[in-house]
Amino acid sequence: MKRTTTAWCARWGIMVCSSRRTLLPPLVVACVALALVSCEADRVAPREEIVAGSTLLEDILNDLTGGTSTVGGLIPPGMCPGHYDLRPSDLERVARCKVFLLHPWQRRAANIQALIEGAKLPQERVEVVDVAGSWMVPEVHAEVVEAIAAILERCSAEAAPEAGRVAERVAAVKAHGEAIARRVEEASLPGLKVLCSDKQEELARWAKLDVVATYGRPEDLSVAEVERLIRVGRQAGVTLVIDNLQSGDTRTSMALAEELDAAQVTLSNFPGAFDGTETWEKAFARNIELLIEAVRRQP
Question: Which of 123, 187, 207, 294 has the most C-beta neighbours closer than 10 Å?
């Protein structure tokens, strides 16, 4: 029996644009947290020279600096960066670091702005890696490595990569990408029709998947958008629905997959979110293997 979209959403426990949470302004949270930091002076951790806005940045920094600088990541890999709640320890770490390294989109995020303001961090200690595109894609990742190296050379003589290290890393990234591309071809992924989270679209297209339609965060989907995705997916013969781990609840993508008689898979945009994926190389390879495994179990 055909179900209405509202009943379908209720069955899966999916809330579609029906409510919004009321949160304290990020700057208020930051100020409160900074006050709490002053009460924890007896537990101050060793100063990190560089605080990285993600585990993706942290991985590259650790590789390029070779342990000559203390590097720490800010946001846990499995969390949505834009919805990460500030902690007193985050303000402490950022206030004391020499360089705060960020993705381009993080500079505009309310939680990061609040963190910088709350920590009273001078703008000259905030560095943005200005490279567009998905950093999980090998060609883009190689650009990011070169951009970070240039920032380190400008900001910190101690953290600057050793001669030849950047070229080695870039060559390794490209070689890894070529090896995974061969794996994609061998698994016959190119041309498969998919619905995809907009946060995983570039990786899906890199794998030569046919992205029929994309969708945003589950809580932002309207009933009309869910209906459209089902209609478009059926018409195109979608065989796979790709979700993004950091976007949160995966029930929407799982429900879409069931309606379309398709497989469902959840990928990650950051190293460390899945066991054994603490580096970009491992996280990227794991994403592709997850795609292959999902296609093999397609209904």
Answer: 207
